[in-house]
């Protein structure tokens, strides 16, 4: 009889523990539901935008903001100032005598086979980046980090922009420099590697533009504690998507000053 009562006590304790676990699971699910209810899901349409395939799926932006942030704009930008969006995080910034490219990437390689080499779309680079520039030279190419959607087209842009009389300065992390060097471009190529041990660096003056580099951290992906593929780039082209790696999760932010204006190009959180 004592053994029977002991068995019943164990069963009651087991039932109590299971009930407690179920209670905590229900509470966690309720909290998760409340948290997701506070997150605003915004659908971003790329219909009609060159290079985007709607068949790839819908792009979603998750934001806890109740309204769009208000950013003060310049009352009157300096005459001749030019800012052109290239897609993704790519920009062309310049005036009548200077041109700076930030993360120039316009290729849209297929992602149906992740192990297949990514091929630079030479036509897209020529038509969407270089041709609209006309006779203007590229003075600097600034790369935030060495993931494919930021650096993939850079070797071709750099090669097309280098002549016997002119060579742009390429700024990036050690992975960006290693990737460009693997293409064995012209000996005139000028490269500046921004090491992760440096927090702030004055790159230099390009016409009326002053460029500074600040160490920042690659953002996480929504709620995942992951900042994308990371490591050191090795080998030679062609590269697959898995070969493009951020250097120690660092993404370089660029602060560009121009006649009293400041432009900040930042792909993540700036580290102080």
UniProtKB/TrEMBL annotation:
Question: Which Gene3D superfamilies is this protein grouped with?
Answer: Ribonuclease Z/Hydroxyacylglutathione hydrolase-like
Q: Which Pfam families match?
A: Lactamase_B
Q: Which InterPro entries match?
A: Metallo-B-lactamas (IPR001279), RibonucZ/Hydroxyglut_hydro (IPR036866), UPF0173_UPF0282_UlaG_hydrolase (IPR050114)
| Metallo-beta-lactamase domain sequence ranges | 93-165
Q: Which organism is it from?
A: marine metagenome
Protein name per Swiss-Prot or TrEMBL: Metallo-beta-lactamase domain-containing protein
């Amino acid at each position: 009889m004592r053994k029977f009562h002991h068995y019943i006590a164990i069963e009651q304790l087991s039932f109590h523990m299971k009930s407690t676990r179920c209670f905590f699971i229900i509470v966690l699910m309720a909290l998760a539901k409340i948290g997701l209810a506070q997150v605003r899901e915004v659908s971003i349409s790329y219909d009609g935008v060159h290079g985007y395939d709607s068949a790839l799926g819908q792009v979603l932006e998750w934001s806890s903001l109740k309204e769009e942030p208000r950013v003060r704009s310049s009352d009157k930008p300096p005459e001749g100032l030019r800012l052109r969006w290239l897609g993704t995080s790519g920009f062309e910034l310049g005036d009548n005598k200077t041109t700076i490219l930030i993360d120039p990437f316009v290729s849209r390689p297929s992602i149906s086979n992740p192990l297949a080499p990514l091929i630079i779309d030479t036509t897209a680079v020529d038509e969407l980046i270089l041709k609209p520039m006309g006779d203007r030279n590229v003075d600097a190419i600034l790369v935030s980090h060495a993931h494919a959607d930021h650096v993939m087209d850079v070797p071709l842009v750099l090669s097309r922009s280098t002549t016997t009389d002119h060579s742009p300065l390429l700024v990036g992390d050690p992975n960006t420099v290693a990737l460009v060097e693997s293409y064995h471009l012209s000996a005139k190529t000028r490269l500046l590697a921004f090491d992760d041990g440096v927090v702030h660096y004055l790159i230099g003056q390009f016409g009326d533009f002053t460029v500074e580099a600040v160490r920042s951290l690659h953002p996480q992906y929504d709620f995942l504690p992951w900042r994308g593929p990371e490591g050191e780039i090795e080998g030679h082209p062609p590269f697959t998507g898995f070969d493009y790696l951020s250097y120690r999760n660092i993404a370089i932010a660029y602060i560009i000053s121009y006649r009293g204006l400041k432009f900040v190009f930042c792909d993540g959180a700036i580290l102080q």
